[in-house]
Amino acid sequence: MGKGGGCVPSKKKRVPAVASDPPPPPASESAAAATPSAASAKLRIFIVFYSMYGHVEGLARRMKAGVDGIDGVEGVLYRVPETLSAEVLELMKAPEKDEVAIPVIPSAAEMVGADGFLFGFPTRYGCMAAQMKAFFDSTGGLWKEQSLAGKPAGFFVSTGTQGGGQETTAGGVNDNGGRKDRVDSGGCRRGGG
C-alpha cells in the first residue's frame, strides 16, 4: 500500500460546496415561541465505557467532545464498575481512576434517562473486557421491559496492537447468539436466542 492514507480521505482535501443546494430556511419565530422548552432541552447521549489504563477513557473524552459539538446534544460520561480488586489492579500497574471527574454509572437502570448511547471498551483476546460484559449482563431487566428499545447506540473499541482483535470484537458485539440485546442501526432491541 506504500505511504499514504489508503482508504482514509485526506484531511487536506475539502468537499466542494454544491451551489445548487439552497440554503436552509430560517427557523420560524412562531414555532420557537410555541415550544420554549424544546429550545432548552438537550438530547442526552450516555458514553459508557471501561478503561483500565486510560486509552479508552481518552477515546470516550474525544467522543464526548464530538457529541457536545452538536447543537442540542449533550454527552454524559460514565464508567462501568470495576470487577477487579485493588490488589490485582496494583499488580497490573493500573492507574487510579478519577471517579469525581467521571463517575461510575450507579446502575443499569440509569440508562433509561438517555436518548442514545456510545459504549467503549478495550478488547481482550477478541472479546470485550469482562467489566463491560458484566455491565451489559446487568441490563436484563431493561431488556425484559424493552426500556431501551429504539434508542440509537454505537460502540468503539481499542487494542494494544494493530490487528489486536478490534474486528473480532466489533463483529462479536452484534453477532453474539446468546446476547439479550443487539446494538444495530435501529438502536437497542431484543435479540435472538
From TrEMBL:
Region called Disordered, residue ranges: 1-33, 159-193
PROSITE patterns: FLAVODOXIN_LIKE
Gene3D superfamilies per the UniProt record, alphabetical: 3.40.50.360
Residues that span the membrane, as ranges: none
Catalytic reactions of this protein: a quinone + NADH + H(+) = a quinol + NAD(+); a quinone + NADPH + H(+) = a quinol + NADP(+)
Recorded GO MF terms: FMN binding; NAD(P)H dehydrogenase (quinone) activity
Family, similarity comment: Belongs to the WrbA family.
Name assigned to this protein: NAD(P)H dehydrogenase (quinone)
